[in-house]
Amino acid sequence: MRNLGFRLLGLSDPEQVKAGMHTLTSAAEQGDVEAEIALGRIYLAGIPTVPKDVRRARDHFLRAEPSRHPSAAYFLGVMSQNGQGVRADPREAARWFEIAAERGSPDATFLLANAYRAGAGVPKDDKKALALYEKAGELEHAPALQTLALAYLHGELGLEPDEAEYRRYMMEAEHALQHRPVPP
After folding, report:
1. What is the DSSP letter of 84?
2. Looking at the whole model, is its pTM more than 0.85?
3. pLDDT tens digits, residue range 77-120?
4. Integer Cα distance of 121 and 144 in angstroms
């Protein structure tokens, strides 16, 4: 059912899109976590025939979260960070990012590193930020690799400036950019 729903969503005919949404909704109601997350993403961004509805998006992500799917926690973190469907709360965002990072989300790991670097919702901690950037970099997260490169270039995050490490991380970032990233 989920695959049929995804195919129908790619069509331009509003009636077929409506049928696709119905199919995805049915799959989600039957416990299909991927369909639940797909619905959350659709409502979070909106598509031409389905208006943006952040409250519905959040409801879908909350229903998917008990499955321990990293995307559910990641999007709940993004929504908490940006105040989408809830009041912006950096502590809540960091909590969700930590959950998603523990489940293997490189995007959440990067955003959690940014939180530690800035002290947004968590205590400012350059060592923790550095470790998280490195973890995300190991997962070929290009922005994390670029952040590490710049930290070596400018001597940030407790690192000494190191031209060789800067170049190494920039080459890794370029390599990562050539791979199609897995969407959160």
Report:
1. S
2. yes
3. 999 999 999 999 999 999 999 999 999 999 999 999 999 999 99
4. 20
